Structures are given as structure tokens and as C-alpha cells.
Amino acid sequence: MSEEEKSLREKILDTSRHFLFTEGYSSLSMRKIAKEVGASATSIYLYFENKDHLIHTLIEESVEELSVAIEESASQKLSTIDKFEAIIRGYVSFAMANPEKYQVIYMVLSSEMGRYPKEKFRKVRRGYALLESVIKQGISEGLMELEEPKIATYSIWAQLHGVISVVQSQRLDSRIDKNKFIEESIEHIVQGFLVRITTS
Amino acid sequence: MSEEEKSLREKILDTSRHFLFTEGYSSLSMRKIAKEVGASATSIYLYFENKDHLIHTLIEESVEELSVAIEESASQKLSTIDKFEAIIRGYVSFAMANPEKYQVIYMVLSSEMGRYPKEKFRKVRRGYALLESVIKQGISEGLMELEEPKIATYSIWAQLHGVISVVQSQRLDSRIDKNKFIEESIEHIVQGFLVRITTS
Amino acid sequence: MSEEEKSLREKILDTSRHFLFTEGYSSLSMRKIAKEVGASATSIYLYFENKDHLIHTLIEESVEELSVAIEESASQKLSTIDKFEAIIRGYVSFAMANPEKYQVIYMVLSSEMGRYPKEKFRKVRRGYALLESVIKQGISEGLMELEEPKIATYSIWAQLHGVISVVQSQRLDSRIDKNKFIEESIEHIVQGFLVRITTS
Amino acid sequence: MSEEEKSLREKILDTSRHFLFTEGYSSLSMRKIAKEVGASATSIYLYFENKDHLIHTLIEESVEELSVAIEESASQKLSTIDKFEAIIRGYVSFAMANPEKYQVIYMVLSSEMGRYPKEKFRKVRRGYALLESVIKQGISEGLMELEEPKIATYSIWAQLHGVISVVQSQRLDSRIDKNKFIEESIEHIVQGFLVRITTS
DNA sequence: AATGAATGAGTCTTCATTCAT
DNA sequence: AATGAATGAAGACTCATTCAT
After folding, report:
1. Are residues D192 and C192, on separate chains, in Cβ contact within 8 Å?
2. Which nucleotides of F are covered by protein (CB under 7 A)?
3. C54 vs chain D: nearest CA distance in angstroms?
């Protein structure tokens, strides 16, 4: 019973996420989802109050998974510098391994769907908070020289997002190797924040 | 007469761009546009063959303006390092001064609207090409130490886009000052690509 | 329940057929049909994929009914000459008893709607084939003297159609009695194909 | 001046007739016509009050031409039997030589466009009247044995129309040669009306 | 737990026609 | 003689959602 139930719910979420990824918000339709999962359109309403709730659930789950991924990645490291990199790489790895889930987080939040309840954003903050604390630690250890750790946190996030989204939206020049592009971008971003005495 | 004429076409473009910015592609409708400009929906078809053409025009114009902005910004500088920074700042300045036009370029190109004619993308490349050439010059002058200028070009672009889009989509923490955020981000991005012999 | 259900589909078909007959293909509209049957335009799409499918269903059903009518009419006769006449009269009787269904078959097939799937025409051939076989039999029995039975078959069909369509499209002189006109026309057509040794 | 004028008017008529023939009444549009003739849609209204008037003109002209063709054809013959056949062949020849003009007469008159002013039909009668008078003559000469010449007239007309329309609407089996089909049909139709003592 | 029937509002687009020039 | 601008009405079709079962 609850098995079957969960199964359909899951199928609906997966299908919705996939459509969102491949065809965009504007052509996401309850009927298409229903058809794809092999149920009636009405059935979707048994699990989700309406289209917005369905999408909100999608976002929520993705955000949660991303947060967990980052936390796990960081928890395996000991030194501050390793944690710093682990968070960054954890973020990118999640995005590349789960493009559909990653995209859902950003795609839908923009202008298309402003009604996403603000309180639910708390969860998103978990990741930011973790990175910020590591950066603060890094400053105190002299690894970085930053006046505003909060700004640095958001800036790193933003730059990473830019890099990932360029790759995932296929705007990257076809002659460029994706992995190399990502690897080099990460290095540049990290370098941009580290104190550069190392070379001396 | 010719004043009035140009005016409606322009009004349609402005209104469309604005709706695209505030409400997204999915809720952009010919009827809404018409209502907003105070004309009948039919009238739009006097100036644009259909919805796609209208949007393509929007994109084309924005891309063109952005390209021009970057080129002008760079042309006023002499040294390579100044040109490098001028391109970056020209890009960001355009984006911040014309958020709607900037967003149009990226928003609509994603999955929602894949049918944008590939040939028209040539124009977009103009900016990339300029930055790439400056980077190559920078390498030859020993300012940067990069193996793949093309990757660097795209990486910078991507990072800048990430920073701008975070600000424009209002995902930035409300306690952070936008201008400061942008300024610091630019500095970090630039630093990430320059040779750091300075400190030695 | 299942009564009501079948009813709406049927009502849609009947109404469509009637509109097609009275106002022609060009002014047949989903909205009008919906209004007439007392349902929303959307509801039509519950029973028919689109306008074309609706019309195709109409054609298919009419063709089928006509075929059956002809076959039944012929099957009740024994001699070749009787079968020959029975087919002709069966055709005409069906057309006169079901003018709307008859017209649907021809009206819509013309240039207005070329996209009727070719394979579905097989059914139409059933009637032709039957008449052709009877004519061949008639030739072998010396009743008719024809070199090309296939041409004769189509010619009879065409002439009958001309006669019926003149009547049904109300192009007949108002002073002429319809039934008499049809009766005499049939006789002339039949005479045109029989060997005229009788009088000798 | 009147040269140019007539030229555009003529072009409009020709184009309309052609569209009517190739695409049917439902997709005949003032704008398409205008585009095709290289004028503005508005210009059509300089020559024709509205769409209906345009089509009526089309019909009127075709009817007139057909009438003339039949009359000419008949006037060259002396004997009644020759006149009889000449009318029939004149009708068919006109139809086959001017399919677009022929189709206009029948296509549009049916249900699609019932509003064609009844009085204008007088002209159509000219052809009927001629055939009827020849048939009456034929009866008095003992060539035909018919009680109702008016019915015979209409019946011949109807049969011929059936034959022609089957050919022109491409409903004829592709294995049948058109000319042979028409020739044989005419012969059968004629035979159906002649007294058959001749063979004895 | 699941669905078939139904719909009002909305989508883009086309049409014949008018009006001022 | 000719036209560009404009529009109200209508076209087919899609959508999210509700309701009774």
C-alpha cells in the first residue's frame, strides 16, 4: 500500500523534474506528467495539492540533498583548507552528478516562479553557513585575507553556479572539454580567494 | 507619423522585455503585451511575424548592445591589463545598467527556447573573441600564466554571469550590499587569473 | 451512465454532420458544435483528438454504413441483372435516406481536406469492387457489352453521384419532382450500360 | 489607367479562382490573395465590395463563359443529333479545359455559400434551355423517346457533372485513363437517351 | 487510491474589414 | 488608385483544476 503509493509519488516527482530539465517550466503540464507516469491527471492531486506544491516539493528535496552532499563532503576532511576545497568540490560534484536536481533549484526560483515561500529557503542557508564558517576559520588561520566572509561566501557560490550553469545549459563552446573547463575554473576560483604567499 | 510608428514597435519590445524580466518566459503572452501597450493583440503581428520572432528580436538587440558596450569599454584603454579589466567591467556595467536586456540574453536561451537560430549566435561570439585575444596578449606579456586561453575566457564569462545573476535574481542575502558584492567578486575573479608575482 | 456517455459523443457526431451538411466545411467550428450540443468546446476533445479526427470519424462511419447498405441490398437478389440494379438502387436509396451522411463522404474529401488517410479509403473500395464483380458477371452472361468493366463501374458511380448531388444541393429546377427525376435518371443510366437487343 | 486597373482586377480574380481550386473555400483569404498579386489587402476593396462580391463575380464570369462555350459549340452543327452531342461535348470540353473556372461554378454554390443571389442564376439557365430545346426537337424527330424533356435535360447535366467532378477531384482510380473514362462515359450517357432502334 | 467527465480561462494566430492618408 | 495601421471577432487547441464515483 504505502509502497505503491510512494512509488507513484516518486514517479511523479521524477517525471516532473525531468520535464522541467528538458523542456522548461513553460511546457510542464500536469497532463503530460500524468501521461508519462501512466496515471490520470487527477491522481497527481492525491499527492500534491496543486502544480505549485508539486514544484515546491521538487525544490525542497533537491535543496535538502544538495545540503547533505556538501556536509558529507566537508565532514570527511580535517584541515581547514581541505574542508574549504571539499565544500566547493562537493557542490560541483553534486551538480554534475545530478544535473536535473541541481537545475531545479535555480531554474524555477528565478522570475518564473517567485511565489516560493521564503521560509523554506532556510534550508538553502545551511550550505552557505557551513562555507562561511570554514572561511572564517581560514581567515583566522591566515589562509585567506578577507574583510567580509559573508560576501566571499556568496561570491564563491555565485561563481561556481555560473560555471556549472554554463556547462549544463550547453552554452559552452563545443571545442572545450567540460571536465577540464570545470577543473580549471575551480582552481581559478579557489586561487582567487587564497592568500598568495605560497609561491614566494 | 514615423515617430508614432516607431513608437509602438518600441513599446512592444520594451513591454515584452519587461514582462520577460519580471514574470518569465512562461507567462509572457501576446495578449498581456497588447493590453499593456494599449493596442490590440492583432497589432503586434503588424510588427512581428509571431511570438518567436518578437523574442528573437529582443535577444538580437540585447546581444548587439552588449557587444557594442564591451567593445567601447575596451577601446578606450591602451595597456593589456587595462583592456582586460575594461572588458570585464564593461560587461558587468552593461548588465547592471540594463538588467532586463541582460537577462533576456540568458533567460530565454536556456531550455525553454531552444529554437533560437544558431547562426544568430555569431554575434554573441564577438565579445568572447575580444576577451580571448586580450588574454592571449596578456599571456605573451607574461601577465597571466594560462595554458588554455579559450577555457579561461569562458571561465571568466561564466563566473561573471554567476555573480550577476545571483544579484539580479535577488538570491543575494539581503544584508549584503550589492555594489560591494560585485566589486569584490570582480576583484577575486581578476586575481584568480593574474600571475601573482606582485607579492613576492 | 454509459448511456449518457455515449450520448455526448453521438451528439457531437450528429451535430458536426449536420453543420457540415447545412453550412459546409469552412464554417464548421468546434465552438459552434460545442454550443449546439450544450457542452464546452473543451469537452469535444475528450472524445476526439482534434478537428480532423472528428471529421475522419464522420467520414469513416458514413462510408461504412454506405458499404453495408449496398451489400445488404445486393445480397437479397439472385440474378445478375437484379444484383446490378440492386446495387445501384441501394446506393441511391442510402443517399436519399441519409443525405447528411452521404454528403459527408463526398463534400469533405475534395480539395478542402486532402489529408484524409489514404489507407482508410480501402473501405470505400468495397462498394466499387462489388459492383465491378457484378458487371463482370453481367458481361460473361452477355447482358452487357463492355470492354473495360473498371471504367464502367466508375462511370456508373460518377453518374449516380451527379444525379444525387444535383438533387441534394438543391440545384434542381423547382418544377421537377425529385423522385421522378431520380427514377428516370436511374433508368437512363442503367439503359446506357445494358445491351439493347431487347427491342430488336 | 483603365489598363492597369483592369489588370489588377483580373489578377485578383485569377488568383482567387486558383486558390479556390487548389485550397478550397475555407482557406481562401483576402490577405493571401493580396500577397499573391503583390498588392495590399486594402486594394482588393477598390475593385470588389467584399469577399462575397469577389466570389460572386468569379461565379458569374465562369457561368457566362460556360454558356458561351456551349452555344458556340452547338451553333456549328446543323442536325439535331449533332447539336445534341455538340452541347454535351462542349460542356465537357469547357470543364476539362478550364477546370478552375468549372469548379468555381459548382464548388462554391453548394452549402458553403448559399447566399448567391438567386436572380443571377438566370444565366445558368441559358445552357439548360438550349439543351432542352434540342431534346424537344429530337423527340419530335423520333430520335429520342422521352416523356419529360425537362427532366432529361437535368439528368444529362447531372450525369455529366458527376463524371467530370469525379475526374477533377481526383477520386478516379489511378489505373484508369482519364480521357478514356470521359469518352466512354459520354457515350454511355448519350446512349442512355437515344432510341435504340438504330442497331436493329 | 484512483479516475473519467467536464469546464472556464487562457494560449497563439488569422480573418475580413475600416479608416485616415 | 493605393496603402499602412489598426482591430474585434473568431479560429483550434491546452491548461489546471474540480466533482462525482
Report:
1. yes
2. 1-20
3. 17
C-alpha cell at position A7: 512509488
Exposure string for C73-102, b = 16+ CB within 10 A, e = fewer: bbeebeebbebbbbbbbbbbebbeebebbb
Which segments of chain C belong to CATH 1.10.357.10? Answer: 61-198
- Which residues of chain B are under the pLDDT cut of 70? 1-6, 108-115, 118, 196-200
DSSP-H helix ranges across D110-177: 122-140, 149-168
Q: Does B25 touch chain A (CB under 8 A)?
A: yes
pTM: 0.89
State whether residue A148 sits within 8 Å of chain B by CB: yes
Please name the residue ranges forming H helices in chain B: 2-23, 30-37, 41-47, 51-75, 80-97, 99-107, 122-140, 149-168, 178-193
For domain D1-48, the CATH superfamily is Homeodomain-like (1.10.10.60)
Of A109, A111, A197, the CB nearest to B23: A111
- Say whether the CB atom of C50 is under 7 angstroms from strand F: yes
Q: How far apart are CA D116 and CA D55, in angstroms?
A: 9
* A123, A188, A193: best to mutate for the B interface, most B CBs within 10 A: A188
Mutate to test the interface with B, among A155, A190, A194 (most CBs of B within 10 A): A155
Residue ranges of chain B assigned to CATH 1.10.10.60: 1-48
Q: At what angle do helices D122-140 and D51-75 cross, to 10 degrees?
A: 20
Q: Is B88 on the interface with A (CB under 8 A)?
A: no
Closest CA to D106 of C54, C100, B146, D94: D94
For the domain C61-198, what is the CATH superfamily, name and number?
Tetracycline Repressor, domain 2 (1.10.357.10)
User: Scanning every residue of chain A, which has its alpha carbon at the shortest distance from the alpha carbon of B129?
Assistant: A173
Which three cell numbers, joined as nine digits, stand for B77? 584603454
- Tell me the mean pLDDT per 10 residues along chain C, length 200: 64 96 90 96 96 93 94 95 96 97 80 65 83 96 92 95 92 91 94 64
In whole angstroms, what is the distance from residue B24 CA to residue A54 CA? 19
Grid coordinates representing D124? Answer: 445558368
The C-alpha atoms of residue B55 and residue B19 are separated, in whole angstroms, by 11
